[in-house]
Amino acid sequence: MKAIILLGGPGAGKGTLAGLLQGKTGYIHISTGDMLRSAVQAGTPVGNEAKASMDKGELVSDAIILRIIDERIAEEPENSCFMFDGFPRTIEQAEGLDQLFKKYSGTLTHVFCLDVDQATLLKRLTGRRVCKSCGAVYHLQNKPPRKAGVCDIDGGELYQRADDSESTILNRLEVYKKQTAPLIAYYKKQGILCDIDAKGSPEETAALVLDVLNV
Ligand code: ADP
Fold first, then answer.
1. Residue 161 catalytic?
2. Minimal CA–CA distance to 198: which of 4, 1, 16, 70?
3. Share of the chain above pLDDT 90, in %
4. CA-CA distance, 144 to 121, in Å (whole number)?
5. Is 65 exposed, middle or buried (0-12, 13-18, 19+ CB in 10 A)?
6. Is 72 tagged catalytic?
7. What is the location of CATH 3.40.50.300 in the chain?
8. pLDDT tens-place string over residues 146-193
9. Residue 37 — φ and ψ, nearest 5°?
10. CB atoms inside a 10 Å sphere around CB 68
11. How far is the CA of 32 from the centre of ligand 1 (A)?
């Protein structure tokens, strides 16, 4: 297996970028946030355990995250290419991922660090709306649906994620600075960190990444 990581604070645009890259590269998009939200909706044991932390903007335990990632990797053929979004989020998870690369004979080729200022992050998160049925992501100003509150794709109801309220967002930004930002130094040391200016449109950001990936 081969993998890249999309690293960046909440609202940096990891999910949107991953969607664009998936179509252009064939990398399989693995979002721990999406996996956990599905688990919460389905009421699985993982979902029930994760819900309280997620609603507060705190991190779910490293053990749960590493287990669901291991299970997800195992579902795909050996020579797959993965794109991790929202994982790893702690040094412990990064070390756990190093172990998984050993287990699956994998290589981590790039860690793309998405750089956005805090004011832009806040605007992106407070305006974000998500389709309840298909998960499509909209933004009240940047990407409004044709009809307010309704998904263009399947007519599903648009809702605001429980953790996109202003007070929870501020907590998520703090959690990012304390627990996830140290990964920047971790991967810089390995020589695979690549800074990406992510203030532009999703297409502009994707073009910068594709240039580095050479595809
Ligand atoms: P964002 O990047 O916008 O904060 P995500 O969808 O990636 O949103 O994550 C939402 C929530 O899910 C996080 O606040 C956290 O509670 C949980 N979560 C997602 N990925 C991880 C992870 N790798 N480790 C721990 N918790 C996670």
1. yes
2. 16
3. 97
4. 17
5. buried
6. no
7. 2-116+170-213
8. 999 999 999 999 999 989 998 899 999 999 999 999 999 999 999 999
9. -65, -40
10. 18
11. 6
Cα gap 208→206, rounded to integer Å: 5
Specify the ligand 1 atom closest to the Cα of 125.
Answer: 3
Please work out whether the CB of residue 33 comes within 6 Å of at least one atom of ligand 1.
Answer: yes
Per-residue pLDDT reduced to its tens digit, 36-61: 999 999 999 999 999 999 999 999 99
Residue 37: per-residue pLDDT: 93
Structure-block tokens of residue 211: 């240039």
The catalytic residue among 37, 89, 124, 129 is 89
Neighbours of 167 (CB within 10 A): 8
This prediction's pTM: 0.92
Annotation says 37 is catalytic: no
For residue 193, the model assigns a pLDDT of 98
Task: Return the structure tokens found at 34.
Answer: 């999406």
Average pLDDT, the chain: 95
**128: annotated active-site residue:** yes
2-116+170-213 CATH fold:
Rossmann fold (3.40.50)
